[in-house]
Design a protein that fits this description.
Layout lengths: L2 H19 L6 H15 L4 H16 L11 H14 L11 H14 L5 H13 L4
Length: 134
């Protein structure tokens, strides 16, 4: 099982555990901190970059959802996995990311650039340029 598959499986475990503890009723508010920690812990990138990307995902896809309590939906889990894959220099699920997502990822990497290792920054920049973020 690759890191992205394990990440998606771990999200499901977090959601299942929350439903078990809440009488079968999901609630994103109960799991969002666990998801943020999982996302940050799974990537080899600095936590500041991971946390900024997670915050964007949450604001763009979760907090705007009509059914926030049941988030993350399958599509939104996969979007988060795509953002994780981006940070890990992989193209898994990248087709789920919009032009706006790529632009935001570019802005976030630019903002965090001085704290990123040079080789990581170069890898991320190559991906971002190939997707028109710059």
């Amino acid at each position: 099982m690759n890191d992205i598959s394990k990440f998606l499986s771990d999200i499901e475990k977090i959601k299942k555990h929350d439903r078990q503890n809440n009488g079968g009723n999901p609630d994103y508010e109960h799991i969002h901190e666990d998801l943020r920690k999982l996302f940050s812990r799974t990537t080899s990138c600095p936590a500041s970059l991971a946390n900024s990307i997670f915050e964007y995902w949450e604001n763009e896809y979760i907090f705007t959802s009509a059914n926030k309590k049941e988030e993350p939906s399958e599509e939104n889990k996969n979007r988060l996995a795509a953002m994780l894959a981006f940070m890990e220099n992989s193209d898994e699920f990248e087709d789920l990311l919009t032009d706006k997502d790529w632009q935001e990822l570019g802005d976030t990497v630019g903002y965090e650039a001085e704290d990123l290792p040079v080789d990581l920054l170069q890898d991320l920049m190559k991906i971002l340029v190939s997707h028109g973020a710059y």
